[in-house]
Amino acid sequence: MAEGTGPRLLAISDLHVAYEANRAIVEGLRPGSEEDWLIVAGDVGEILADVEWVLRLLSERFAKVIWTPGNHELWTPQSDPVTLRGEHRYRRLVEICRALGVATPEDPYPVWRGPGGPVTIAPLFVLYDYSFRLPGQLTKKEALARAYETGVVCTDEFHLHPDPHPSREEWCDVRIAETERLLAARDASLPTILVSHWPLVREPTAVLRYPEFALWCGTERTADWHRRYNAVTAVYGHLHIPRTTWYDGVRFEEVSLGYPREWERRQGPPGRFRQILPAEDDR
Ligand SMILES: [Fe+2]
Ligand SMILES: [Fe+2]
User: Fold this and answer.
1) Is 57 in contact with 26 (CB distance < 8 Å)?
2) Angle at CA 214, nearest 5°, toward 241 and 210?
3) How many A from CA of 281 to the centre of ligand 2?
4) In this predicted model, what pLDDT tens digit does every residue of 39-53 receive, in sequence order?
5) What does the pLDDT look like over 173-193, one tens digit per residue?
6) Which ligand approaches the C-alpha of residue 197 most closely?
7) Label partner for 188 (CA 20 to 30 A): which of 77, 141, 230, 283?
8) Ligand number, closest to the Cα atom of 256
9) pTM to 2 decimals?
């Protein structure tokens, strides 16, 4: 353990290791203490072998790794020999994680008992349902038509297959029901850290450069989850806009690394973890 460093709960997302420069950053990711836990909030990569490589490396370095899928893990790219789609692909990812001892949304929620704990860490997979529409857009159809007109269309439309669900929003509907069931069954005496690739509330999407992209960023149906499930912090990624914001007194942490063209413009070295616990004011 590094001197003066106690156990910490850290987080990162959007490692996007299809980029060689990001792969090099991942190789350099190390805990400050052998007792550190790491949350990986989705978008590790698209190729299943890449995702497995990253999670294996991190699970060998951290005492515990908690993963939830991003949209990129759920794509079925032509370059991947694994051709599983949708739900089947997600289940394969869960099997890969379980073999490595990495916690997934399908496993019992781990409890952090280090500084700032005890707190339940709940990795959530709820997807999105096109409800983050712009003012005046009443339906998904209308909102998508506008997105196609402006040329702002998420690649999920072509690579994220919902099989066997009829659509991505119907898959989201199933995930919400299942996730609400799991959250209701948690130990209600403990606060939570809610981890989802997509933000649980809509507000963070207000700063998107292309507002139409919000369609692929979440669902209105999770807007009160941070209050309903007693969250101390919500961890998310997907937007590639790392920052801390507060809603209803709950800390929201966007923890993404992002693409090289994005992190190259930021101050400081890329690939720094966000410290979730202990929180600054607990130390
Ligand atoms: Fe991403
Ligand atoms: Fe994403």
Assistant:
1) yes
2) 70
3) 30
4) 999 999 999 999 999
5) 999 999 999 999 999 999 999
6) 2
7) 283
8) 1
9) 0.97
